[in-house]
Amino acid sequence: MATSSTAHPRQPKGQPTGGQFAAKSNPESDIELEPSWPGLTREVGQVRQASVVRWRDADDQLQDPPDGSPAAQQFRLDGTVEYEEHRQADKRQDPPDGSPAVRWLRPDGTVVREAHYQAGKYQDPPDGSPALRQFRSGGTVVYEEHWQAGLVQDPPDGSPAVRQFRPDGSVEWEQHYRAGVRVPG
Predict the structure, then answer these.
(1) Which of 68, 94, 122 corresponds to the end of one domain?
(2) Residue 130 and residue 176: Cα distance in Å, rounded?
(3) Is residue 145 situated within a structural domain?
(4) Chain-centre distance of CA 110, in angstroms?
(5) Which structural domain range is residue 156 located in?
(6) Is residue 54 part of a domain?
(7) 51, 44 in Cβ contact below 8 A?
(8) In the beta sheet, which residues pair with residue 115?
(9) How many domains does the chain have?
(10) Which neighbouring-strand residues pair with 83?
(11) Rounded distance between C-alpha atoms, residue 151 and residue 131, angstroms
């Protein structure tokens, strides 16, 4: 059993002040309940009955806070994250850890769709994975697109820029692109 050596002033039994212990003053806590960073303003609002949190800089542009959390998040009524978006200077931008700039999530936390960006444009990340992917509830990929500098583009290995997959993982259809232009065939 835990015990405390803190002295609490006692009240006599039966006093209308109620309770066993008298009120005492407590020093102010050093803990901040809401995060804050110099130069950033936190907005909280409602969109379609969901809570929205956005961080804006002094120029009113969406900006990731220094702790790496997203510049914008939307929460369902049950408190789970539905959408999150990372931004730098008001442009969608993958965070330094390489995770996608934008993610849409199911109530169980699994990803519905993710998108990688550099300076506000779709961009395949350095590992060569697609800039845009959509997933089934079991985690398998439904659809993917490769992008370079904001243009849909076949990756360096020559595989198609755009593919859609069947539930078993086989390719349902695919399309090649060069510098944003669909290649016939």
Answers:
(1) 122
(2) 14
(3) yes
(4) 12
(5) 135-185
(6) yes
(7) yes
(8) 102, 132
(9) 2
(10) 74, 104
(11) 11
Is residue 110 located within the same domain as residue 149? Answer: no
pLDDT digit string (tens) for the chain, length 185 residues: 444 444 444 555 554 444 444 444 444 444 444 566 666 666 666 555 678 899 998 899 999 999 999 999 999 988 899 999 999 989 999 999 999 999 999 999 999 999 999 999 999 999 999 999 999 999 999 999 999 999 999 999 999 999 999 999 999 999 999 999 999 87
- 3-state SS, one letter per residue, for 92-146: ECCCCCCCCCEEEECCCCCEEEEECEECCEECCCCCCCCCEEEECCCCCEEEEEC
Coil, strand, or helix at residue 151? Answer: strand
At residue 37, what is the residue type?
W
Asked if 77 and 100 sit in the same domain, the reply is yes
Dihedral sign (CA 152, 154, 160, 166) = negative
Whole-number Å distance between alpha carbons of 84 and 144: 19
Q: Give me the amino acid identity at 30.
A: D
User: Which of these three, 122, 155, 174, is where a domain ends?
Assistant: 122
Beta-sheet pairing, 102-105 with 111-115 = antiparallel
How many other CB atoms sit within 10 Å of the CB of residue 51? 15
48 and 93 in a single domain? The answer is yes
Instruction: For residues 153 and 105, state if they share a domain.
Output: no
